[in-house]
Specification:
Number of domains: 2
Order of helices and strands: HHHHHHHEEHHEEEEHEEE
Keywords: DNA-binding, Transcription, Transcription regulation
Protein name: Helix-turn-helix domain-containing protein
Structural class: alpha+beta
InterPro entries: Homeodomain-like_sf, HTH_AraC, HTH_AraC-typ_CS, MarA-like, Tscrpt_reg_AraC-type_HTH
GO molecular function, one term: DNA-binding transcription factor activity
Shape: globular
Organism: Gordonibacter urolithinfaciens
CATH superfamily of the largest domain: Regulatory factor, effector binding domain
Distance between the termini: 52 Å
Length: about 325
């Protein structure tokens, strides 16, 4: 199963790359099976075994997710978008779009409301499986804090008062109907205008979604010594006035000074725990130092965690003058 998760992740990555490149030939079942060197039947069976859904359904959902963003953000004709994403006609695209999102492409372009997109799955994750790092690392990058001023903005999110850590957050959210991770990530992915959106499709990896910790006297006491509530959401402009889905919350975040604790690119399987330890040590040293600053944990303050191993792992924490 461990190896199959790796191979299914190959298919998942190849699907997104091929959709983005408009490479329909690479998206056929035959091509995806050849990528792994197995029969089409064996590939589809294993994909469903690992991901919990048929390969054809996942592929259709990702095609529509890519297409929806072009409908929302671009000016290409709906027919061109339909043909670019493998639909035989405008009518076929409209039927599939409405079946998936409850609205036609033309109506959505005129009024882009939050809908649930099929986000990219992660079939392989060593930490979900309890495996941790592979071996040791000789990576010696230090984590040095730097300061930034974050303008006032809004934070659209789902919060969990019971969770303790990212994977516990995911597990607890998946037990809540309408607030499971697939639904929440899909809704956030469809929202236009996210401040951190760089065109990606995964939480914390360029798609505008970010983990956060909101200081809250009624929250769970964290290892950093103050009560907080864990959240997954997206930062939005201060004047954002879009529709808020009933299962998400919107809060205003005032402008302020933040300290950034950032580690550069790293190998997730080999170095994740090491990177976490380095960042935690850097934050502890900052808190203990007599440097004229201290972490600001007043109610309503938000810590953001950005996680994308290909680029960085970083905490962005509010601070104030000591």
């Amino acid at each position: 199963m461990h190896e199959w998760r790796r191979q299914v992740q190959q298919i998942v990555d190849a699907i997104d790359e091929s959709i983005a490149a408009r490479d329909d030939e690479a998206l056929t079942l035959r091509a995806l099976a050849e990528l792994l060197g197995y029969s089409e039947f064996h590939t589809t069976r294993r994909f469903k075994e690992v991901s919990g859904m048929p390969l054809r359904d996942y592929l259709r959902g990702r095609r529509l997710a890519f297409a929806l963003k072009e409908v929302r953000d671009g000016d290409a004709s709906l027919l061109d978008i339909a043909l670019d994403h493998g639909f035989s006609s405008h009518e076929a695209f409209t039927r599939a779009f409405k079946r998936a999102f409850g609205v036609t492409p033309s109506a959505y372009r005129a009024d882009p409301r939050p809908v649930v997109l099929r986000t990219k799955i992660t079939a392989f994750d060593r930490y979900v499986l309890g495996m941790g790092e592979i071996g040791m690392t000789d990576e010696n990058e230090n984590v040095e804090p730097y300061f930034i001023t974050v303008p006032a903005h809004r934070f659209l999110h789902v919060a969990n008062r019971e969770s303790n850590g990212y994977w516990d957050f995911c597990q607890k959210q998946n037990e809540i109907p309408g607030q499971d991770m697939a639904t929440v990530c899909g809704l956030l992915d469809s929202v236009k205008g996210k401040l951190d959106d760089e065109g990606g499709a995964e939480a914390n990896a360029g798609g505008g979604q970010v983990m956060a910790y909101v200081s809250d006297p009624a929250g769970r006491l964290c290892a950093w010594g103050f009560p907080r509530v864990e959240c997954l959401g997206a930062r939005l402009p201060r004047d954002w006035a879009g529709e808020v889905p009933p299962n998400l919350r919107l809060m205003d975040v005032e402008a302020g000074e933040y300290a950034v604790f950032e580690h550069g690119p790293f190998d997730y399987e080999r170095q994740m725990r090491t990177v976490e330890d380095k960042i935690e040590a850097a934050m502890a040293a900052f808190e203990a130092a007599d440097n004229g600053w201290q972490f600001d944990t007043a109610p309503g303050k938000v810590i953001y965690l950005y996680f994308d191993p290909a680029r960085f792992c970083k905490y962005v924490r509010p601070v104030r003058r000591a």
